[in-house]
Amino acid sequence: MALDPIDRAILRELQADGRLANAELAERVGLSASACHRRVRALEASGVIRGYAALLDPDAVERGLTVIVLATLENQRRGTLEAFEQAVAEIAEVMECRLTTGAEDYILRLQVRDARDYERLHREQLSGLPGVARLISNIAMRTVFARTALPIEGA
Q1: Which of 8, 37, 46, 117 could anchor a disulfide with 112, C-beta 3.0 to 4.6 Å?
Q2: Are 115 and 139 in contact (CB under 8 A)?
Q3: Is the distance from CB of 116 to CB of 102 less than 8 angstroms?
Q4: Helix and strand element counts for the chain (H, E)
Q5: Where are the domains of the chain?
Q6: pLDDT single digits (tens) 97-137
Q7: How far is residue 3's CA from residue 32's CA, in Å, rounded to a whole number?
Q8: What pTM, to 2 d.p., does this model score?
């Protein structure tokens, strides 16, 4: 879907406040409420807008420790990659899993209670993931910043 300046304005506004009422959004981007509603629905239908979510404070829900795990697999055969990806997707504490280039095959971001919780997770689940040859864990000391909004170029 090609995005025009109005679509881009809508996306910027919704990234800043996903709960924005349609009438307010329409006013901010200079459209009628019905035209704005049609545009938002088109952005959703095309997959540009994938969904809406509440952003939670990890500390408030007892998941304040961020662990970055670099995973190296035994090989990069399709079956090995697919088995790893399916299994890691089943672990609720894994917030992101990215296939990468470089020395490691995957980068995982986990949110856990504390170091003891991570140790349990590593022992009971991560070390048994299919195809894993090596895991390197890095504990984040603090989050300097974390963005949820993508840069939207144009008017």
Answers
A1: 117
A2: yes
A3: no
A4: 5, 4
A5: 5-45, 65-139
A6: 999 999 999 999 999 999 999 999 999 999 999 999 999 99
A7: 18
A8: 0.89
